[in-house]
Amino acid sequence: MTTVKAYAAQNNASGLAPWSITRRDLKPHDVDIEILYCGVCHTDIHFAHNDWGMTMYPVVPGHEIVGRVTGVGSHVKKFKAGDIAGIGCLVDSCRECDNCKDDLEQYCTGGAIFSYNGMERDGSGITYGGYSKQISCHEDFVLHISDKQPLEAVAPLLCAGITTYSPLRHWKVSKGQKVGILGLGGLGHMGVKLAVSMGAEVTMLSHTASKAADAKRLGAHKFVLTSDEEQVKTVANHFDFILDTVSAEHDYNFYLAMLKTNGNMVCVGIPPPAPPVAVFNLVFQRRSLGGSLIGGIAETQEMLDYCAEHNIVSDVEVIAMKDINTAYERMLKGDVRYRFVIDMATL
Ligand code: NAP
Ligand code: ZN
Ligand code: ZN
Fold this sequence. Notes:
By secondary structure, the chain is of the alpha/beta class.
């Protein structure tokens, strides 16, 4: 076992502070990674604050991990020391259920193991995430990272990238379709870039007027300020597909009314309170409301390769580890353009 520096929340009001964790000895299929950068996802805030009532404290968040391989187990074939590698939200799954066999490990019915706040399958305890110096993971859950793109800007692809890529692919977003991306934050800005790259006509739906210019710069064809009645009228019965990335309570019915007949609205944002949905809004135009969780390992690699090929990365603000609590406060105020990434050299 190795003792490793980390940052943890000890309870829902403690904020994040230095802590130390132990990482396991290398197993035959393990890859050891020195973490270079870790993105800050709003899910990290939900867990640190116990918004979803499922946090096991102390929690070490972080699931947008990019680093350098420092060692590999005797059976590892896919990686060698010195490689640049990534770990996202998943570190293990049962590998036997239908979903695991279909490359949908995130929906593993035997229980997907998440990078933090998960229980290791071998009973060794709770998983700790990327706000730390080092991590060990089975090679099957480690991703190859191109060395042609800036690593700090690639890190957020491991969650924000795949969480938006997967539903856009599953619902077959393509050229000619009208797509609304709701919420311009970490997920939203990746959603805009990816949907534009797939040929869709993309509208940014935001409650922050000052983000209009950025939305255009990111590639959005149109910007609708959701508090402006006149602007909202222009997108009534308009979209084939809406991707909802909003992290806070909001009215789903308001956005469902923006879907065309047969349109789909897919939630990836997970606000803590359960939302009331008026079924009328679905029934009368045969609309669908769905949800989507990150993506499987094969699809995550496909997304990373796609982003490398299309030169897509995240817009990031690199921070020092000690500034994580300020970063959380700023994210809760919507003051992030558009992903904080921790430089782990500062830990
Ligand atoms: P983020 O960077 O903080 O962005 C959230 C955005 O939501 C904000 O930028 C803001 O956009 C909008 N928003 C915030 N408060 C709002 C309000 N009161 N009313 C309307 N809009 C509001 O967060 P993120 O990292 O993208 O994560 C977003 C959500 O996705 C979180 O709930 C997170 O847990 C979840 N998530 C889910 C998955 C999954 O697999 N399904 C994966 C990762 C994250 P505007 O200023 O443009 O309105
Ligand atoms: Zn995330
Ligand atoms: Zn499974």
